[in-house]
Design a protein that fits this description.
With 229 residues, the chain is an alpha+beta fold. It has 2 domains: 57 residues; 162 residues, Nuclear Transport Factor 2, Chain: A, CATH 3.10.450.240. It has 6 helices and 6 strands; from the N terminus they run αββαααααββββ. The strands form 2 sheets. Strands 3-4-5-6 form a 4-stranded antiparallel beta sheet. It has a two-stranded antiparallel sheet with strand order 1-2. Helix 1 packs antiparallel against helix 2. The longest helix has 27 residues. The radius of gyration is 24 Å and the shape is elongated. The two termini are 28 Å apart. The N terminus is likely disordered.
Length: 229
């Protein structure tokens, strides 16, 4: 939906409300047309902001060839102005920064990390992770071995990657991406090879917030945090 199509309709509604000159009493509180006008003005600005947010989201990573899924992105209510300001700051310290390339990199990292988790071996992706994330994956693998089970994430397909947060702090860049994917999710008993949880034939959907960090400038990104939605 284009902003030019939305604003006239809202503005028309605003004109109708502003033409009311009489005061209305509601529960002993008098609401006059001046207050109604202010409320309508705020409504117009709010609608414009929502439309702009949708335009920004479609712009981000859309050119990466990833399928846009509005339900995933709309579920995260980030302020687009804050995202744009954060990306602008990152671009100042790294003029070569590109949102589409970043999303492509996040997609590839997602696939590699899921493979490492399935194999219970974070070593192949250690250079992509912060020390804390390496520790988390090692503990996850050790827990599965103690339980005699292995969690599998097969046939992973990333449907959409959308930047939802971006900021700089203490000489570091931070970007959070909402990753929407499908995959087979099941648990195997190490002794018997039988499926003891999940389903190895029916894909499931997942939405995860992945936060990446690096020293400001042209430096490699590392995965710093994962938030399952």
């Amino acid at each position: 939906m284009k902003m030019t199509a939305v604003l006239p309709a809202v503005a028309g509604a605003a004109g109708t409300l502003l033409s009311v000159t009489s005061a209305h009493a509601a529960g002993g509180i008098t609401v006059r047309s001046g207050i109604a006008g202010l409320a309508v003005t705020m409504l117009v600005l709010g609608v414009a902001r929502l439309v702009a947010r949708g335009v920004r989201r479609r712009r981000r990573c859309g050119a990466a060839g990833l399928q846009y899924d509005d339900s995933a992105s709309a579920a995260y209510d980030a302020e687009p102005d804050d995202v744009d300001a954060g990306l602008l700051g990152i671009g100042r310290t790294d003029p070569g920064f590109d949102e589409v390339r970043f999303c492509d990199g996040a997609r590839e990292m997602f696939l590699r990390v899921q493979k490492a988790r399935t194999e219970r071996d974070p070593a192949p992706v250690a250079e992509l992770l912060t020390d804390e994330m390496v520790r988390v994956l090692r503990e996850e693998a050790a827990r599965q071995r103690r339980n005699g089970q292995s969690d599998h994430r097969d046939a992973v397909v990333v449907r959409n990657v959308d930047i939802v947060e971006a900021w700089q702090e203490s000489g570091k860049d931070h970007v959070t991406a909402l990753i929407y994917a499908t995959h087979l999710d099941y648990t195997i008993d190490d002794a018997t090879g039988e499926v003891v949880g999940g389903n190895r034939t029916v894909p499931v959907k997942c939405e995860e917030l992945w936060t990446f960090t690096r020293s400001s400038g042209d430096h490699p990104w590392r995965l710093a945090d994962v938030d399952l939605r």
